[in-house]
Structure formats: structure tokens, C-alpha cells
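Here is one chain, start to finish.
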Amino acid sequence: MGWLGVCLLFVGIALFSNGIAAKIKLDGKSLSFINAVTGLVIVGGNFISLSKADFIDTMAYNNIAAGFLFGFTYLFIAANYIFKLDPRAFGNYSICVTVFAAISAINCFSGGLVPLACLWTAWAVLWFEGFLELSCGIKALGKIFPWLSILEGIFAAFIPALMMLFGTWPV
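Its structure:
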């Protein structure tokens, strides 16, 4: 779980930073760097994984797909901050990723991978919140996002990343 730990370390830092910035109303351009670096690390690593993937191992492709979805999330966020894009496009992307995350959570639960299933569930909630706020225009959720991002950055990314990198992750 080493590579996943590396990716989640960056995700945790980006989520935490995005949440804090939303709380204190920090300009998005200030966040574009950490989001771009997070996205590039994850996408770059997944291109390497894709080049080494065994064509028979469908789970390898599932992991690569998940990595690309995470990586493109942060590249999309960085681009939105830099270019002031219409956020509804990211909201629409988020609902597609929500479906993937929810199915991944169900798959992990059914396979007995409960800790990983809990992470997928948390991520599905975050992406779904993005869809509701950005695509559906439910602005009241804007008050939830900073706290959700901070908490998920810590508990669904940073701490699991450290556990994976130190070999104490329970799966």
C-alpha cells in the first residue's frame, strides 16, 4: 500500500489546505500549487502504473482508474482556481466520481476490506457534496465543505497515509 500512502499523503495536505482556505476566505490562486502538485504526483504515478500493468489483472486497472479520478480531481481544482472556470463542470465530474467511489465502497465492504470501504464511503460523501453544491446550486452546503474537507483531509487521507507508509494499515 506504499504508493497509495504517498498519494493519500498529498491528498490529505490538499484537502486540509482547501478546507482551511475556504474557512478563512483565502484566494484560490494561493491553493492552485498544492492542488496541481497533488494531481501531477497522482496522475504521473498512475501513468507509470499503467505502463507496468498486467493486462489480465483487472484489479490493477481498477486501482489505476481510481488513481486517475483522484489525480484529475486535484488538477481540475487547480485549473478552476487559476482560470476561474465554471464550477458546474467540476460538480458534474464529481457525481461521476461519486458513483465510482460508492461502488468501490460496496466492493470493499463485500470483500471484507472494511477500513478501505470506510475511506471510499467518506470520499464518496465529499465528491457528492461537491456535486450538490456546484452543479445543483445548494449553497447552504458551502458551510459544510470546509469542515468536511478538513476532517476528511485528516481522517480519510493523512492519517491513513501515514499508517500505510509505516506499515500499520489494517488491510
